[in-house]
Amino acid sequence: MFEAKLTEGLILKKIVESIKDIVTDVNIDISPSGISLQAMDSSHVALVSLNLSMDGFEHYRADTNMVLGVSIANLAKVMKLADNNDQITLQADQEATHLKIIFENPKTERTTEFNLNLITIDSEHLAIPETEYSSVVTINSGEFSKICKELFSLSETVQITTNTDYVQFSVEGEVGSGQVRLGHNDSEKKEDQTILEVSESVQQQFAIRYLNMFNKASTLSSFTRLCLHQEQPLVVEFKIDNLGVLKYFLAPKISD
Amino acid sequence: KGVQKSLGTFFKKS
């Protein structure tokens, strides 16, 4: 038996919106300590990794580990039934064939229930090695979204360069070339801060269209954390207050 | 420009 109730259901709605363009069918792993999922996009370039702790739920019970295979596209359609102020409860029996999703609005007394059919997914699970990232950049999530969006209109690829003084996003295309450079900024206004933690500088290229998809999660978190290592995929991380973390991994483009 | 690598180059199947 699995049951989890989230008071701020909007968070779950936002999570589904933030991953639905990247992954289609996903195995959701339920454990007594929380909910997690890991899935790659069809081209195996990007990976979504979500971890939600039981502590963030108003009520959480999972007697055993369970795997719930869901179509994210269909889950997103169901989530549209939820009002932004709804509480959301997820329920599944042992050996379940469906996931019961309940939306409740205590103020308006409206309740919506949907039984989403589960599917069997044969998915590859990747072991992500523990990595000490040599450059970690914490940046306002709205600002990072805007930079990626605007640069994408000029080029398909961005080169991210880090050093102890700044992080630089540079593009080169038919239109021309240029860069946005952000220096370390620990100003009093927290939302303006850009925090650089660089032990070794990194220079890598990435397809901007994936970054734009990841940035849908900027509504979940005021800050985006970019974790870079010269020999590893980029991690774009969004912390979800008191609940967990949504991470995206993106393989670099490498010049021959 | 660069060649897009796949995640399989970096992460092993578990």
Helix-strand layout with pairing:
The complex is a heterodimer of chains A (256) and B (14).
Chain A: E1 2-6, H1 9-19, E2 25-31, E3 34-40, E4 46-53, E5 59-62, E6 66-71, H2 72-79, E7 87-92, E8 98-105, E9 110-117, E10 126-127, E11 135-140, H3 141-152, E12 157-162, E13 166-172, E14 177-183, E15 194-198, E16 203-207, H4 208-214, E17 223-228, E18 234-240, E19 244-250, E20 253-254
Antiparallel strand pairs in A: 1-5, 1-7, 2-3, 2-6, 3-4, 4-19, 7-8, 8-9, 11-15, 11-17, 12-13, 12-16, 13-14, 17-18, 18-19
Helix pairs in contact in A: 1-2, 3-4
Chain B: E1 3-4, E2 12-13
Pick out its properties.
heterodimer; A: 256 residues; mainly beta; nine-stranded antiparallel β-sheet; five-stranded antiparallel β-sheet; 4 helices; globular; B: 14 residues; 0% helix
Task: Explain what you see.
The N and C termini of chain A lie far apart (52 Å). In chain A, strand 7 and strand 8 form a beta hairpin. With 256 residues, chain A is mostly beta strands. In chain A, helix 1 packs antiparallel against helix 2 and helix 3 runs antiparallel to helix 4. Chain A is built from 4 helices and 20 strands. The model of chain A has no long low-confidence stretch (mean pLDDT 96). Chain B is mainly β and 14 residues long. Chain B is rod-shaped, with a radius of gyration of 9 Å. The termini of chain B are far apart. The mean pLDDT of chain B is 90. Chains A and B meet through strand 10 and strand 20 of A and strand 1 and strand 2 of B. Strand 10 of chain A pairs antiparallel with strand 2 of chain B.
